[in-house]
Amino acid sequence: MSASAPSGPPPGTYQIPSLGWRILGGALRLIPLALLLIGVPVAILTFLQAHGINLPLPLLTVEFAGVVITILVVARYVFKPTAAYGPLAIATAAATIVYLYLILLDATYRFTVPNTGVTIAVGYSTLVLLLLIVPALALAAGALTLIEDASAPRERWPFDFPP
Amino acid sequence: MASPIYHTPPTPPGIYRAARALRRLSTIVLVLLVVFVAFVAYSAIQIVHAQPHLGTSNSTVEPNDTVDIATAFTLTNPTYFSIQQFALHFLIVNATNVVILDSRSNAIAIPAGGQADVPINLYVPLSAAGESLLTEDQYLDWNVWGNASYAYLFTVSIGEQTERAWGAPFDDLRVAVGAPVLVNGAEEVPVTVSFSNDATFALAGALNFQVVPPSGPDCAQGTFGLNVPSQTAYNQTQDVGIAAGCDPAGGEIDSEYVGNGFSVPLPPEPIP
Fold first, then answer.
1. pTM recorded for the entire structure
2. What's the N-to-C CA distance of chain A in angstroms?
3. B76 and B28, same structural domain?
4. What was the ipTM of the complex prediction?
């Protein structure tokens, strides 16, 4: 007689949405994320560029980083019930940290007021450094989830997906 | 027998609770930062009512061979956050790109809703690079930068480049020596001094001069009393006795302006 080892929480203690529902939820998140991470920054930077203000960060970098982070956030949501959730959370946080680091490298806007001889420069490196706290905390949370999933697979299901 | 309805919910494991706490903390930090930055941005808009003002400048000659250009910068802070480390940096360059002055004011803080007057005293040396300021009206490039940090988050630097006219106290200075004449058996030369006081301050003192020949000891020396108001021309001639056999032709006239307890050497004038 052989006894199988317990493979996770007992049925009925969790209710995982189907892959289709998770994809739908991810698609719904895609809209505000794309707006927040790509649409608004690109619109603001294009406006500044049109008014002769040089951008410290290329527009292409902003677009690329926005797309990458948006895709990772959506993938993290879709794969939340799987073991890929921890690595995806870490990847999302790491991508955000790299993006913020690129912003930090030249965190100054400089522009000249036409016909006045006045130049204005605004530095925001302290703000970027503070913003780095956010993905750093998310990175630590992702690492803990990765460890949890490795040591006790599906242990978090009843708490992440209560019935 | 336990009721199937009122069962106790299971407690999440420690590692799950730690990860959840970190995620919630990151969200809270993000929300707080966004709200704070939005408030700072709204507050910073009030700076348009700040009315920064650079007062008129006043120049005086100081005892240490410098011109003190005194002015004041006034800035109000109508925002909700203090302005820290506010400092001004001045760089004055003349028309030939010679740096006349490079000076920084002390950093001050302007509290929210407060006002600060930053006294500015720029000491321009009247020797070396600044010598031309004595005898040449000219335009000077004033480069002024104001640096500050705002709301502990942003650094702001505002720079302005303006061109300001400088009126020299001895503009177009000419010291001329005439032909020697015999007066009661002694040889004398007429020495004429002319200039225009285009400075914003009056000249009160004396102009001492020496007639220096190409070789040998000084031929003659004398003093012109000066009381020249601002924006006034000066032209005086004085006969001075010269040493027997002294020929000043080809030499130069050295002069200095002596004020109340100080003296400023003026550029030498050649004698044809």
1. 0.75
2. 34
3. no
4. 0.89
